[in-house]
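Q: How would the structure tokens look for this protein?
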Amino acid sequence: MLRTWRLVMLMAGAVALWGFQPAAAPASFTFFAIGDTQINLAKWGAAGTEATIAAMNTLPGKPFPLGGVVDEPRGVLIAGDLVDDTAEPKNWAFYKTLFHPRGNAKLRFPVFEGAGNHDISTGAKFGDWSYIQTELIARNRERAAPVWVDANGYHYSWDWDQTHIVCLNIFPGREWRQVYDRDAPWNDPKAAIDFLKSDLAARVGTSGRPVIVYWHYGLRGWGLEKWWLPEDLARLKATLAPYNIALLLHGHEHRYERYTWEGYDVVMAPSPQFDPDRAKGEQEGRPKGFLVTRIGNGMLEMANWTPQGWDDPWKKSLAKR
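A: Here is the predicted structure in token form.
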């Protein structure tokens, strides 16, 4: 079936729809998620990440802990920190051999990635763009599903059946924030909260459809205390309040955790590898894990895959609270 390139400018918020129109999809779907691929070839390599990719590629068809088998994922969400060091372009070049918006890489599934703090030069001024952010904008034109983008083509959203998904890159803020009590104009969310507000109003409205939102920084502990201001959190809470938020997803802390924030279910996506501990003589990284999420029959089901076995399988209704 031929795919037709579509670029539709929409009046609400001057948002564009980019992507290839796919064939009709079934009413249930699966996706995987990770955070913090954080490629640094010189410092710790990517052997663990490549092993995790191999596990992703071969998992479909195997038993899922909540019943049935794991279906082919429609895509893989990556919640920021794609590379560790932007000063070495080889890291980004290698990342692109592993992950591609249409699955044309070592990972055979399409990725829906966003930037994290490591993907931005800490020497940048407010308003600057790193070369990785610029390339992410270009990659948004290649996404495997039609995506709505902000005026820069940076923040984006899409629909998988009745579920609406929004990628907000670093964090859903409006202006740069200090980091560790030091000025950090590079820590620029590029008005992500404004895109979220306009996107949800235009794409979801009063439909009650389930929504998944993801970005990089966390909402508890270290991820919360060092990277947010109270007004950011208040604005986020108010923006989400009218909608059926099924899941908030983030990375940043390199491990799996599930918790709640303001009554919302939040999951921290793990990084795909344990970095080698040189002090212990370790030379290669080891695979860590990834999230597997299945949506269908009014339910969200999730489990964390690890090399040792499935961790923390859980499920919830997608009915609006």
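The chain has one domain: 29-317.

Residues 29-317 form a domain with the Purple Acid Phosphatase; chain A, domain 2 fold (CATH 3.60.21.10).

Upvote if useful.
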